[in-house]
Write a sequence for this structure.
């Protein structure tokens, strides 16, 4: 078997025909991950015992003639901000370098219940804050396409693992583009579901009102299969939705004729030429498939970056308060007083980007500034959401670029946080509006760098989004590496 | 009562000033489980055992609102005559402390659960009203243990069992003018919460905690003075002492030409004084913002009204009814309504007895006396209210004398048997039957012709002798009143 080329459909067929066992598959995936990881640093650690135990359960079920589950034997990597019981979960932070959670995230438990084998935990920007994966306390991730370049962030390790072929699929988390942007940089599919579609229980919080768990995979069908397994109401997350989960695979019937697609003009200005050309070429392909294109406007787009960085830093400043040295985090050893312990632990424990965001967030929530920043940003957020609502009265989906440019070089933007923030422009609006959005590969630049196309849909209309993405992927030949 | 306060400002100076007090009262709700997780709220478990990822604030854990906590809070708010907001919001109150594992408390800020209420209580016979500014829901922090460990000199220990216990915070308007008013208000508030069974309000266990905002001004002034906040008023006695001290302290400062500094002060039990903790410049900025992990709290009209309908009669209404319906005196009403349990016991006893006033005497006298002597709670009283009522009725109907009834009660309390059973077994019935008594009286008169002659000769005191003989002959079971009446009638008539 060639783990790097397997799809979930192929694995299902192979297991059913006894071409190999789930344990053999997972053993091979683990071996491959171990061998390949030095090239990318995509994994922080593997969890072979857990993965093999899951595979053994699948084999037992197969032997007894039982349904082994929709994700039976599928080797999956999980971003290290998502908790795994008994398996170290560091969040890419020095503060949690030794943290072993006592419980599983709901998404992880659901993956395993569906038969998946969790191979290991993937590298990411510290507490999911970053767009390049250079903010990890455990070293940056290299893009498998070009090791001199970043894989994107913050789910860079998950995207790299899938692109590299060590994992068939992965879980990432997305707060402002952290699934879609690395997916686009690495040439894989990345899905940010509707807010509330997937439980956040067990996802280490960065910005609670914007955080999503979602899948990364080599093709749209695999991503949809993962989402199918993890979606749905969870009583442990008050913000998780009651809406029933539709059959995503059934929705992907290849027929996109007559689907109305909006092209927001604000997203097509000032595009780096190659990215623009590839996305526009993708749009033409959709038109050829029968979609009806319509230029639309999302006028509040210009305020999105400011709005996003106020809300996400405000929430982050509060969410990161618990890493204080009192209980499970690393604790600065030399502190004498309580204040000193807080100061030293957090001062030495957090990386620069986390500290920057904690300070920004603390500032915008402070007495006297709250109204001017946080409250205003909340109002802008509602306007952005309304822009989308109005647009979705005229169109069924919106198609845009994912990132203004393809993967950049390691170190290229790390000293310019503002430019780094500005690169999130196309992805943060979907998070702010809470609508489903995804990145699907739409080609490569002359240098061979992947470019992703973003599809956004109405709340809970993942079926429409998947239908478009799958038809596009098939017609353009973008599925698989 | 000499106190620390008296030393600060003499009474004639104090008399020129008026205190303005508002209270912030924290009431621990009596839910079985915590506000955002399923951990038990039980008190006294070994440290850090009633905990889970949610109340420990572990990474990735999320709060889920306990429906019961909301229901209790709504009932509390309704009982305080508040307007319950159809939509309210939880908010994060951010601050660092070792016993606050999330680094923020989940409370309410801009949109509290309920607002604009009031509580009426009585002060020296007159009704007084305190406005309730707001009632909001929040979670409690853990406990920092600064002493009691071998290395307490160097370390503080943290017990997170209490983390996530549901609280309501009740904030009053600055309508309170003295420590006595504060005391009476808090007493009324506690009674209301206990009647609702939303809290045991056990101050020793921290189920009722109180902070006070205090300022003083010259009588007649309309502006408020600068206020201080006094914390740690953790018993009714301390509340009174701390307020008295702080009022006097502020008066003394002003009398000396000084200025009151806006600050937080701590009541120090040992010295009986308040001590400055932090000034306004060092006040916390809690950076409140809406809690993104919880949806807005919606209380529909239907839900609210269902909760209102399920509320018991509240202390004030019960007191009024006990006065008007049963004709009880204020003092008796006060005693009998002290707890809902006692009031309900009394009502059931009164109904069974057919004589509320007598029932009131028996409940307050024999029952409470016996419970106290036995060190028992009313809840485990061996005598059921209906049984006590029956006993009272037997006295009222003349079947038992008061003296006999007390003996019967003692036996009821000891054995739990109903009065009827004891009376029958021991043959203790009081004889009130006219025919039966007449026979005995006739026998006594016939047996004592000498005394009969003396009586007829005008020696009225002999009547007592005859009563005694009748009682003796009936082994004390004759109804003395009936005997006397019968004797008078017999002796008044010509020789029988």
């Amino acid at each position: 078997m060639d783990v790097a080329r397997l799809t979930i459909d192929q694995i299902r067929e192979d297991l059913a025909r006894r071409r190999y066992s789930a344990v053999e598959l997972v053993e091979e995936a683990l071996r491959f991950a171990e061998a390949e990881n030095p090239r990318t640093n995509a994994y922080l650690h593997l969890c072979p015992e857990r993965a093999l135990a899951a595979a053994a359960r699948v084999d037992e079920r197969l032997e007894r003639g039982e349904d082994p589950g929709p994700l039976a034997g599928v080797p999956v990597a999980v971003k290290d901000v998502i908790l795994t019981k008994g398996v170290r979960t560091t969040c890419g932070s020095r503060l949690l370098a030794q943290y072993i959670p006592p419980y599983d995230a709901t998404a992880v438990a659901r993956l395993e219940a569906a038969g998946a084998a969790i191979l290991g935990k993937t590298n990411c920007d510290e507490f999911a804050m970053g767009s390049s994966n250079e903010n990890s306390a455990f070293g940056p991730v290299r893009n498998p396409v070009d090791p001199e370049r970043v894989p994107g962030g913050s789910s860079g390790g998950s995207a790299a693992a899938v692109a590299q072929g060590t994992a068939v699929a992965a879980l990432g988390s997305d707060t402002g583009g952290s699934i879609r942007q690395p997916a686009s940089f690495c040439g894989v599919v990345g899905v940010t579901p509707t807010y509330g579609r997937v439980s956040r229980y067990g996802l280490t919080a960065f910005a609670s009102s914007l955080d999503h768990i979602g899948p990364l995979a080599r093709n749209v069908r695999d991503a949809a299969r993962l989402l199918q397994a993890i979606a749905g109401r969870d009583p442990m997350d008050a913000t998780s939705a009651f809406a029933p989960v539709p059959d995503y695979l059934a929705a992907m019937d290849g027929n996109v004729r007559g689907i109305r697609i909006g092209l927001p003009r604000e997203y097509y200005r000032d595009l780096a030429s190659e990215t623009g050309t590839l996305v526009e070429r993708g749009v033409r392909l959709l038109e050829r498939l029968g979609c009806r294109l319509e230029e639309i406007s999302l006028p509040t787009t210009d305020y999105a970056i400011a709005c996003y960085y106020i809300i996400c830093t405000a929430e982050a400043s509060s969410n990161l308060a618990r890493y204080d040295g009192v209980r499970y985090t690393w604790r600065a050893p030399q502190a004498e007083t309580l204040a000193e312990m807080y100061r030293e632990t957090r001062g030495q424990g957090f990386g620069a980007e986390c500290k920057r965001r904690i300070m920004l967030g603390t500032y915008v929530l402070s007495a006297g500034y709250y109204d001017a920043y946080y409250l205003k940003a909340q109002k802008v957020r509602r306007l952005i959401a309304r822009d989308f609502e109005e647009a979705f009265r005229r169109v069924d989906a919106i198609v845009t670029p994912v990132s203004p440019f393809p993967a950049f070089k390691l170190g290229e933007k790390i000293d310019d946080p503002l430019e780094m923030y500005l690169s999130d422009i196309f992805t943060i609006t979907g998070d702010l509006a809470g609508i489903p959005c995804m990145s699907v590969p739409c080609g490569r630049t002359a240098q061979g760098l992947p470019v992703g196309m973003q599809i956004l849909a109405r709340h809970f209309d993942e079926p429409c989004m998947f239908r478009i993405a799958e038809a596009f992927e098939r017609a353009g030949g973008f599925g698989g590496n | 009562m000499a106190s620390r306060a008296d030393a600060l400002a003499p009474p004639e100076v104090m008399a020129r000033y008026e205190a303005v007090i508002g209270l912030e009262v924290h009431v621990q709700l009596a839910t079985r489980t915590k506000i955002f997780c399923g951990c038990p709220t039980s008190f006294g478990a070994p440290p850090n055992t009633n905990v889970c990822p949610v109340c420990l604030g572990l990474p990735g854990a999320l709060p889920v609102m306990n429906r019961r906590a909301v229901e209790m809070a709504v009932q509390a708010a309704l009982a305080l005559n508040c307007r319950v907001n159809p939509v309210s919001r939880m908010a994060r109150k951010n601050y660092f402390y070792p016993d606050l594992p999330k680094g923020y408390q989940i409370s309410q800020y801009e949109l509290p659960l309920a607002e604009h209420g009031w509580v009426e209580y009585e002060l020296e016979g007159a009704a007084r009203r305190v406005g309730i500014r707001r009632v909001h829901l929040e979670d409690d922090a853990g406990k920092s243990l600064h002493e009691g460990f071998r290395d307490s000199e160097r370390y503080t220990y943290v017990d997170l069992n209490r983390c996530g216990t549901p609280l309501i915070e009740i904030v009053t308007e600055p309508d309170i003018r003295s420590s006595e008013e504060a005391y009476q208000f808090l007493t009324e508030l506690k009674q209301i919460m206990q009647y609702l069974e939303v809290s045991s309000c056990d101050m020793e266990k921290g189920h009722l905690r109180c902070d006070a905002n205090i300022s003083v001004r010259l009588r007649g002034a309309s502006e408020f003075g600068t206020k201080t906040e006094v914390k740690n008023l953790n018993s009714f006695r301390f509340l009174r002492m701390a307020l008295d001290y702080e009022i006097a302290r502020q008066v003394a400062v002003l009398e000396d030409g000084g200025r009151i500094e806006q600050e937080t002060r701590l009541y120090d039990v040992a010295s009986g004084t308040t001590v400055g903790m932090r000034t306004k410049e060092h006040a916390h900025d809690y950076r409140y913002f809406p809690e993104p992990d919880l949806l807005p709290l919606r209380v529909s009209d239907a839900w609210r009204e269902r909760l209102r309908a399920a509320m018991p009669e509240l202390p004030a209404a019960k007191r009024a009814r006990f006065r008007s319906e049963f004709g009880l005196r204020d003092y008796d009403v006060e005693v009998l309504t002290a707890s809902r349990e006692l009031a309900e016991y009394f009502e059931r006893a009164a109904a069974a007895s057919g004589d509320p006033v007598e029932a009131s005497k028996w409940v307050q006298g024999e029952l409470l006396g016996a419970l106290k002597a036995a060190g028992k709670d009313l809840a485990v009283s061996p005598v059921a209210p209906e049984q006590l009522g029956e006993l009272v009725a037997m006295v009222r109907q003349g079947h038992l004398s008061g003296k006999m009834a007390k003996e019967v009660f003692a036996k009821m309390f000891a054995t739990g048997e109903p009065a009827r059973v004891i009376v029958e077994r021991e043959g203790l019935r009081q004889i009130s039957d006219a025919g039966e008594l007449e026979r005995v009286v006739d026998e006594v008169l016939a047996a004592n012709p000498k005394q009969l002659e003396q009586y007829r000769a005008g020696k009225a005191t002999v009547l007592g002798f005859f009563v005694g003989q009748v009682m003796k002959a009936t082994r004390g079971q004759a109804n003395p009143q009936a005997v006397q009446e019968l004797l008078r009638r017999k002796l008044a008539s010509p020789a029988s």
User: Anything to note?
Assistant: The first helix of chain A runs from residue 8 to 16. The longest strand of chain A covers residues 437-444. The radius of gyration of chain A is 21 Å. Chain A touches chain B through 43 residues (CB under 8 Å).
